[in-house]
Amino acid sequence: QEIADSFGNFSNISSRSSQRRKEEIACLATRYLHRVQSAAYEAALNRPTGGTLRRESQFMVIEVLTIKNSCETENEIVKLQTEKEAMDIDCSVVTGGGTGGNSAVVFISYKSFGSILDGSFVSKENLTLDEKLDHFQLNSKVISGTTGCKKNCSLAKSVNFTFHHIQMIEESKKSLCVYWDELAWSNEGCHVTFSDGARTVCSCSHLSTFAVLMASVKLKEDPVLTMITYVGLSLSLLCLFLAALTFLLCRSIQNTSTSLHLQLSICLFLAYLLFLTGIKRTEPKVLCKVIAGVLHYLYLAAFTWMFLEGLHLFLTVRNLKVANYTSAGRFKKRFMYPVGYGVPAVIVTVSAAINPQGYGTTKQLFLKLNLSCIFSFVSPVCSSDRRGSCLFTYLFLFLKELLSSLKTGQHTTQERRWMLTFKAIAQLFLLGCSWCLGFFLAELIKEPLRSILAYAFTITNVLQGVYIFLVHCLLNQQVREDYVKWLRSMSKKTESDSYILSS
User: Fold this and answer.
1) What is the separation of C-alpha 333 from the centre of its chain, rounded to a whole number of angstroms?
2) What is the pTM of this model?
3) 2-217 has which CATH code?
4) Element containing residue 475 per DSSP (H, E)
5) What is the pLDDT of residues 169-206, one digit of tens each?
6) CATH 1.20.1070.10: does it fit domain 223-490?
7) What φ, ψ does residue 264 adopt, rounded to 5°?
8) End-to-end CA distance of the chain
9) H or E stretch including 44?
């Protein structure tokens, strides 16, 4: 019982040594662990009777087994358990470590040692890894096992330890069995035999102090998906540039809708350009955070303008007086710009004030995946997509009613049907509804469905600039007529210049 209560003294020393270097804390912890294991083993070995004995305090649980003479049966497995942690060891391993006829095995579970020897005591130099892992953190209680054998002596048969996780293991995480190697955690001689979301079973060839680490698996980039992203965004940049020039210079289509298209094109163009040129540049840190904040703002602004486009389309379809000249000007000045650029600015400002560390990761220039990210990006995007889907549903029902009123059989009517249907479907992508696919890329979705959704999400969203140029420019008769006029005027000017030069 004195051994079980002794952790309080060590905990007080370590808590008062917050200014100590990690090496000093590690040395203190190593000496304490050795003393506890040695004292518990000596007490178990000197017990007058055999069998198990359990002692518990607010700091640790100790269970010992004392064996008189030899094992009862060959290949007998001895099981010691403290709360949810367990140790399975072959009886012959226990008796091989005893002296003078008695042998003993000690199993200790520390209730709060993990707060001292946490994931900061992980060094990749001490770990043998077959894949790239990072962001290590302790995900179990710290336990110790000993049969009186000296430090890290090799056992004839491996010992199994069962750990229950502090946090559930997700698909992007991996469990790692480790032991305390005086100054840091190491996985030499230990490996995982079973692991699920709730528990991990470790098999080790020596006895020491053990725990389970949780690490993030570095996901491998799909080269095809990366190529689609860069090619699609580059194509969208070109189309957005041409679309913006069209909306600015084509006088025949100047109205509220054109202003909405222009602002959306500008936001997407800047976001795509910044994404392509700086998404992988994580240094210097200050610039990384600034670029991540600007990207956050531009994408939120783009989704806000998508929502405003959907709202304007809804009001137009309902034949409200929004699309005429006077109402359009009032709509633009009093409603469009303050909402289109003001709301995203408020969200980004609040997000940066609450969690300034949430901008920029070690891999890319964007938001970290935490609660702040959910509040400041996922929630607005989800809200915009939900409203966009409702507006698209209304538009689709209106189109169905309109098509049913058209007379069938005429060639022009058939062409008009197809064009209206195509534009209605295109609105699904123009309003950002395809971003909903991203919410299905959760870790609960397994392969191959997850890869299919990833490709669908990427292809439909990186080409949004192409959709804007196609629907609002190339499929607009007035714009096509202006394109023809510009081409003819350029052709005449070229011919005139050639004639002057030749003469």
Assistant:
1) 39
2) 0.61
3) 2.60.220.50
4) none
5) 876 788 999 999 888 899 898 999 998 888 999 999 99
6) yes
7) -65, -40
8) 111
9) helix 22-45
